[in-house]
Automatic annotation (TrEMBL):
It catalyses: L-aspartate + 2-oxoglutarate = oxaloacetate + L-glutamate. InterPro entries: Aminotransferase_I/II_large, AspAT/PAT-like, PyrdxlP-dep_Trfase, PyrdxlP-dep_Trfase_major. Keywords: Aminotransferase, Pyridoxal phosphate, Transferase. Its cofactor is pyridoxal 5'-phosphate. It holds the Pfam family Aminotran_1_2. The keyword Metal-binding does not apply. CDD domains: AAT_like. Residues 37-380 form the Aminotransferase class I/classII large domain. SUPFAM superfamilies: PLP-dependent transferases. Belongs to the class-I pyridoxal-phosphate-dependent aminotransferase family. GO terms for biological process: amino acid metabolic process. This is aspartate transaminase. It is an enzyme of class 2 (transferase).
Length: 389
């Protein structure tokens, strides 16, 4: 017996992009110290008061089946947060709570696309994007952005692929590049979506990590609320990655259908986790800034280190917990550079090629270790790059 094509072709016949990460973990398992700058995992853990509230809720008995759309208090809290941050009227009926942002991403594409529909996404991309689209039985169509544009998408490039497509997936602040899409970029994207009757699926899990400019949800642009599905999560904003609590925002009728999907797949999110998420959101923007502060600080460290050399250049680091470094001056691919850096200096970073063709010759650096270790790793990287030029 064979597995279905839907599941056996999720990777599209290639790598999942995590080869360098896996090798680093193998080295660590063998007792070799490795400085890991690979995944977007906070070096702080979920705050104790959030965990205490989760514990209280569990002890109080919220351990049975929870409401599948999400508990009312959390749906209302998310709706209020979204409305306050974007200005778009949002009610709990526009919100479905999901087991993390990844589940919301999958549900959004199932809601937007029928089997075989063309689903557009941008390169560079988060490593799970094309597999998520295949898992939803859509046909992934990749549109390259360009390093010379600081990876801001060109609306003309999207329009060239939009005919007959059903959806477009974007991510700002962006993983892996750290770029925040400008208002002009988002207005161009919105125009393409309106002109071609596309669903816009907007991954906004890094909306609290903006270092330059502003985060603009495309749902707030004219004519976009009715055709935009927004993916959000507690993972990055509140350092709750393991709690798996996210949400999908969209028109009420579509959210109703998505709730039916959840009933037949995930069957919701544990109630005690949802209660802790309500508690976390109640801490307000000051708490979210506290979670974001280490990445803002490390970005400044990186800018200072990189200003003193010429071998490595920094893609504008405007948001999210990542840096995108251009190492093409070394004459090496990003993959070759990442493997060599790991072998010679035991520093693990993700090659740009893990995130698509557009980021070839680049590295994605997660700013997720202590400041002094982070600075040391960057200085070692720069010296290594200098030796290769």
């Amino acid at each position: 017996m064979q597995a279905s094509r839907r599941i056996s072709t999720i990777l599209g016949g290639g790598s999942d992009g995590w080869d360098v990460f896996n090798k680093a973990r193998q080295m660590i398992a063998a007792g070799i110290p490795v400085t890991e700058l690979t995944i977007g995992e906070h070096d702080i853990r979920t705050a104790a008061p959030i965990l205490q509230d989760m514990h209280r809720s569990a002890l109080d008995g919220h351990t049975g089946y929870a409401a599948i759309p999400g508990v009312t208090a959390l749906r209302e809290a998310v709706a209020a947060r979204v409305q306050e941050r974007t200005g778009v009227p949002t009610r709990k009926e526009n919100v479905m709570i999901t087991p993390g942002g990844q589940s919301a991403l999958f549900a959004a594409h199932v809601a937007a696309c029928d089997p075989g529909d063309r689903a557009l996404y941008l390169d560079p991309f988060y490593a799970t994007y094309p597999g998520t689209l295949r898992g939803a039985s859509a046909e992934p169509v990749c549109i390259q952005t360009h390093a010379e544009d600081a990876f801001q998408p060109r609306s003309a490039d999207i329009a060239a692929q939009a005919k007959g497509a059903k959806s477009l997936l974007i991510n700002t602040p962006n993983n892996p590049t750290g770029v925040v899409y400008s208002r002009a970029t988002l207005e161009g994207i919105a125009e393409v979506c309106r002109d071609n009757d596309l669903w816009l699926i907007s991954d906004e899990v890094y909306d609290t990590q903006v270092w330059e400019g502003e985060h603009l949800s495309p749902r707030a642009l004219p004519g976009m609320a009715e055709r935009t599905l927004v993916v959000g999560s507690m993972s990055k904003s509140h350092a709750m990655t393991g709690s798996r609590c996210g949400w999908l925002i969209g028109p009420e009728d579509v959210i109703g259908h998505a709730i039916n999907l959840a009933t037949h797949t995930t069957y919701g999110v544990p109630g005690f986790i949802q209660d802790a998420a309500v508690f976390a959101l109640d801490q307000g923007p000051a708490f979210e800034e506290e979670i974001a502060a280490p990445f803002r600080r490390r970005r400044a460290i990186a800018q200072n280190v990189l200003a003193g050399q010429n071998a490595v250049s920094l893609v504008p680091a405007q948001g999210a917990m990542y840096l995108m470094l251009d190492v093409r001056n070394t004459g090496m691919t990003g993959e070759d550079f990442a493997y060599a850096l790991l072998e010679e200096h035991h520093i693990a970073m993700m090659p740009g090629e893990s995130f698509g063709k557009a980021a070839a010759g680049h590295l994605r650096v997660a700013m997720t270790i202590a400041d002094d270790e982070f600075e040391k790793a960057l200085r070692t990287l720069c010296a290594f790059a200098e030796s290769k030029t």
